[in-house]
Amino acid sequence: MPELPEVETLRRSLARHLVGRIISSVTILAPHVLTKDSRHRISQIIGASVSDVNRTGKCLAIELNNDRTVLIHLRMTGRLLWNMPAGSFDGHVHVVWTFSPSADAGDPEDSLVYRDVRKFGRIDLVEKHAAHQSSILQRAGPDILSVDFEDFSTRIRARRSQIKYVLLDQQVMAGVGNIYADEILFDAGIHPRARTANLTADGMQKLYASTRRILEKAIECGGSSIRDYIHTDGEAGRFQEQHRIYQRGGETCFLCGAVIQSIKVGGRTSSFCPRCQRRSKAA
DNA sequence: AGTTCCCTGAGG
DNA sequence: CCTCAGGGAACT
Asked: Which of A90, A183, A233, A282 is deepest in the core (most CB within 10 A)?
């Protein structure tokens, strides 16, 4: 569920907390969440300091000053929590990093916890120049906010399929998941099952504009907090208050009052307004 | 492009 | 108790 806006919100707060800090220890409680070949190399990060925190799609990259990178993909239920009280640790805490106090500020020792109820998330440790070969990144296309209109439309049109299926395909472009795919398609007035080959020039323009508008607005709101999703410091995002279509099947459309439909596309629940999102018109 | 798997909490 | 959701890989 953390998608591009949630991961970008995380990236910003991690960058604030971590850059310049030295990793003093790593405790692995569930080896399973580390990729196989990184498990025995994890000690390579001890003593290194964090130089930067980057993001591609839904993947976080914690860059270290020893030419190593820690890649983290949270999948469904992964969470990164800053200074989680040790007393509230439960069976879902899988990795704990500690950071030594910075020399100048006299900070206390801080910790970053990786907690993941379903254990779908993955963490990898790679050499910086080989990060794109990690099992977490090797299939990912470019970050969807990094492409221009030309590239965007070329990539979409290269797949002859249902538009929502293509938006969810991280190989085409990375970052959009089920929530934002539904919100973007509603905003653009495009049916989730519209064939990419049938998109008009105007439809493609709208799709590009809506993708940027929705994702950028969601980032401004600190992402969406649904179910138990919270950010590193425990605060919630606010974009869920602006959801107009996601998980609203059976309710009425805010724009036209029609009953919102719920169908499956690519195995994912998809809500759309049958009046605002015409399949035949493709926008 | 559909299915299965991973995994667990939530809801019926 | 049973069923389902869901990101992504792997398989068909």
From this structure: A183
Q: Which residues of A173-185 are buried (b: 16+ CB within 10 A; e: fewer)?
A: bbbbbbbbbbbbb
CB of A85 lies under 7 Å from some atom of strand C: no
Tens digit of each residue's pLDDT (9 = 90 or more) over A237-283: 888 888 899 988 888 999 999 999 989 998 898 999 999 998 765 55
Residue A40 CB lies within 7 Å of the nucleic strand B: no
For residue A1, say whether its CB is under 7 Å from any atom of strand C: yes
Helix, strand, or coil (residue A86): helix
Residue segments in chain A with a per-residue pLDDT below the cut of 70: 102-107, 227-231, 280-283
pLDDT given at position A105: 58
Alpha carbons A117 and A128: distance in angstroms, whole number: 29
Q: Nearest nucleotide by C1' from A228 CA?
A: B9
Residue A3 bears catalytic tag:
yes
How many other C-beta atoms are found inside a 10 Å radius of the C-beta of residue A5? 27
Residue nearest to nucleotide C6 (CA to C1'): A76
Q: What is the per-residue pLDDT for A107?
A: 61
A32 touches strand C (CB under 7 A): no
Q: Is this structure's pTM higher than 0.85?
A: yes
d(CA A280, CA A283): 8
Distances (CA, A) of A220 to A9, A11, A225: 9, 13, 13
